[in-house]
């Protein structure tokens, strides 16, 4: 492939939305209230919409007949490049919200930078996505505050979720080879530069939510290189079920 | 067991600038911010709005249909409030 | 109020409906009208919410991204429709929590069709095509029903639902024109969903208890048997376009009636499912009750937070 770095770079971005969208989609019909259920599905729909834009572009770059669905559903686990945070399960609503919040703050900052990309397709996608993600960030932040500064029980649950998920935040700022190449070409975002503001913003909100900012020195990583957590295989089993069981068919 | 349920809110949506907000339904939310967010997610999924008002249902005072006679019927015979009440020759234009 | 006064009010009420005037929440209404509407509207809302489950079952496994977003949007609409209907019902003086309570304890019913399992992707097609098709036939006349909030909710619901059936039919079409394996999957889904869809339009007229009163209040415009015939007559030609076979050996065009004759419906099965012994009754309720109970601490937290925020605001104002 001529543009292998760009292709991998796009997958790195899109896989986050794909896997997170899949996780949010699991909740549809099982949310804590009808209104919240509908809101979570909106987030899922936004994310899948983004995925389609990215993968349609990736499919054009690949130029070998691979469709958006082939890219989304027919890779091996090691070929998915999403961060570990995105694949963490909906243990309870605090985990769902915590995962969303910790990702949204990053996602928003990332898209702001991606808007400046010299790749016009990517900057156009970023331009569209940023409005959706601004809302996601508002939604998840509000819920972190509600659960953190709600009842004693919700406070504890929200704290647990943040404590458990914190270990996956550092990976957001790791650079892959594709990242470095794309940054050099003015296409990609230098995620290392987003880190400081990220932890500042996240910490401020956690404090407002009366939550403790975890004091952690060791972090998990690997998703960007395709080394995932044990949850990922099950998620992919669902995601890929039809394409694997009935190969080469149109739906 | 929950002691308190999310109260009910009435939702008004302006479909585009130049038009009034119209009542489109209700929903439950814990506070006004959540009511706005829920209204956005529930009632503008299909691009139906550019502005939302939310009012907690308990704050709405409604007239009682039992009083409809005294409230609304007296207006029925005030025909002089309408232009058709006034007789003008046909050749008067622009009036 | 004396009995005579009540009779007179009832007479005026009936005349109002006969003149096609709407009844609004604060208007006087016979107690039976209120109760019947609470029952039917909440049952309708429950059906939307329980109806999310069989289709929700396939969201994570949808075969393409295009299908996935369409299905997500459709199931989300069902949540929305449940919400509109619960809200409309609340205008009659019952809370959503009370309605949930009735659903969770089995006191309230919901459409029996959702007690059947969704076993293959083709079931998403069959549900959209047949179940939504039957639902539309039931629902369109309700846009004109006598109770204002119900009619308004139904107008919104019908407008939004217009894509649901097309979504399902398109799935079926793709399968029917696909590989032999796909076509077989579509036929199998039709075989399993056809009869429950016919049952969905309700017991035969001689067994239906509510029809006459419901007609008067415009909760119903046609009888169950008329609706069923309408559904069959419009669906059979659609099956022909798909090249699929309706699983009824007695199905035959009747030139004289200009309608299809059809075979005997297994009403024993219908009553078995209605009474709670369908393949998925227990699982559906478990899923609903589970979501509600798991959500309790979340809902409580939101209330507690709202109260704290309010208190802070008031303190600041002092």
UniProtKB/TrEMBL annotation, chain A:
GO CC annotation: cytosol
Signal peptide as annotated in the record: none
Domain of life: Bacteria
Gene Ontology terms describing biological process: phenylacetate catabolic process
Gene3D superfamilies for this protein: 1.20.1260.10
Record-linked InterPro entries: Aromatic_CoA_ox/epox, Ferritin-like, Ferritin-like_SF, PaaA_PaaC, PaaC
Transmembrane stretches, start-end: none
Record-linked PANTHER family: 1,2-PHENYLACETYL-COA EPOXIDASE, SUBUNIT C, PHENYLACETIC ACID DEGRADATION PROTEIN PAA
Name of the molecule in the record: Ring-1,2-phenylacetyl-CoA epoxidase subunit PaaC
Provenance organism: Winogradskyella jejuensis
UniProtKB/TrEMBL annotation, chain B:
InterPro entries in UniProt: PaaB, PaaB_sf
Gene3D superfamilies named among the record's database cross-references: Phenylacetic acid degradation B
Pfam families, per database record: PaaB
Protein's UniProt name: Ring-1,2-phenylacetyl-CoA epoxidase subunit PaaB
Automatic annotation (TrEMBL), chain C:
GO biological process: phenylacetate catabolic process
GO CC annotations, alphabetized: cytosol
GO molecular function: phenylacetyl-CoA 1,2-epoxidase activity
A Pfam match: PaaA_PaaC
InterPro entries assigned: Aromatic_CoA_ox/epox (IPR052703), Ferritin-like (IPR012347), Ferritin-like_SF (IPR009078), PaaA (IPR011881), PaaA_PaaC (IPR007814)
Protein name, UniProt field: Ring-1,2-phenylacetyl-CoA epoxidase subunit PaaA
């Amino acid at each position: 492939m001529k543009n292998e770095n760009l292709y991998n770079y796009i997958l790195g971005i899109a896989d986050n939305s794909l896997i997170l969208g899949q996780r949010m989609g699991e909740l549809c019909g099982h949310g804590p209230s009808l209104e919240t259920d509908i809101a979570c599905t909106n987030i899922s729909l936004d994310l899948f919409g983004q995925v389609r834009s990215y993968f349609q572009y990736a499919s054009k770059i690949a130029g070998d007949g691979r469709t958006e669905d082939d890219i989304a559903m027919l890779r091996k686990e090691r070929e998915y490049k999403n961060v570990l945070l995105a694949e963490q399960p909906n243990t309870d609503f605090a985990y769902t919200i915590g995962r969303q919040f910790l990702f949204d703050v990053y996602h928003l900052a990332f898209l702001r930078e991606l808007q400046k990309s010299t790749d016009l397709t990517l900057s156009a996608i970023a331009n569209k996505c940023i409005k959706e993600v601004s809302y996601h960030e508002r939604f998840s932040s509000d819920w972190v505050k509600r659960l953190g500064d709600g009842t004693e029980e919700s406070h504890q649950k929200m704290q647990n979720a943040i404590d458990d998920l914190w270990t996956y935040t550092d990976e957001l700022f790791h650079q892959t080879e594709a990242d470095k190449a794309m940054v050099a070409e003015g296409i990609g975002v230098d995620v290392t530069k987003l880190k400081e503001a990220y932890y500042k913003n996240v910490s401020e909100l956690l404090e407002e939510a009366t939550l403790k900012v975890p004091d952690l020195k060791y972090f998990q990583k690997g998703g960007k290189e395709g080394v995932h957590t044990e949850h990922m295989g099950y998620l992919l089993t669902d995601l890929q079920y039809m394409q694997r069981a009935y190969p080469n068919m149109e739906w | 067991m929950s002691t308190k349920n999310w109260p009910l809110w009435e939702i008004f949506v302006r479909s585009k600038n130049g038009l009034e907000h119209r009542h489109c339904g209700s929903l439950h939310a814990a506070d006004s911010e959540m009511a706005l967010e829920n209204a956005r997610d529930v009632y503008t999924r299909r691009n139906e709005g550019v502005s939302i008002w939310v009012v907690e249902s308990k704050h709405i005072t409604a007239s009682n249909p039992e009083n409809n006679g005294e409230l609304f019927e007296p207006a029925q015979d005030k025909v002089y409030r309408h232009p058709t009440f006034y007789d003008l020759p046909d050749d008067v234009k622009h009036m | 109020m004396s009995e005579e006064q009540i009779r007179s009010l009832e007479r005026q009420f009936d005349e109002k409906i006969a003149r096609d005037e709407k009844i609004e929440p604060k208007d006087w209404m016979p107690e039976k009208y209120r109760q019947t509407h609470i029952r039917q509207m909440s049952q309708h809302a429950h059906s939307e919410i329980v109806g999310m489950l069989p289709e929700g079952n396939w969201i994570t496994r949808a075969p393409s991204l295009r299908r996935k977003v369409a299905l997500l949007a459709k199931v989300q609409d069902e949540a929305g429709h449940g919400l509109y209907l619960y809200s409309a019902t609340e205008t009659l003086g019952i809370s959503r929590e009370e309605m949930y309570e009735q659903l969770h304890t089995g006191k309230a019913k919901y459409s029996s069709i959702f007690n059947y399992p969704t076993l293959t992707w083709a079931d998403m097609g069959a549900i959209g095509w047949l179940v939504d098709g039957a639902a539309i036939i039931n629902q369109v006349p309700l846009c004109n029903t006598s109770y204002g909030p119900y009619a308004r909710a139904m107008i919104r619901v019908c407008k939004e639902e217009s894509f649901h059936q097309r979504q399902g039919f398109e799935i079926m079409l793709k399968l029917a024109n696909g590989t032999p394996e796909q076509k077989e999957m579509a036929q199998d889904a039709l075989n399993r969903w056809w009869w429950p869809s016919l049952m969905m339009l309700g017991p035969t007229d001689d067994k239906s208890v509510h029809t006459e009163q419901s007609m008067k209040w415009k909760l119903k415009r046609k009888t169950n048997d008329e609706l069923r015939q309408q559904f069959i007559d419009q669906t059979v030609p659609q099956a022909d376009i798909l090249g699929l076979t309706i699983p009824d050996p007695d199905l035959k065009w009747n030139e004289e009636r200009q309608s299809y004759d059809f075979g005997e419906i297994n009403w024993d099965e219908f009553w078995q499912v209605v009474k709670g012994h369908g393949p998925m009754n227990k699982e559906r309720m478990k899923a609903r009750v589970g979501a509600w109970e798991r959500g309790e601490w979340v809902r409580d937290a939101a209330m507690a937070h709202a109260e704290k925020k309010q208190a802070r605001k008031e303190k600041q104002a002092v």
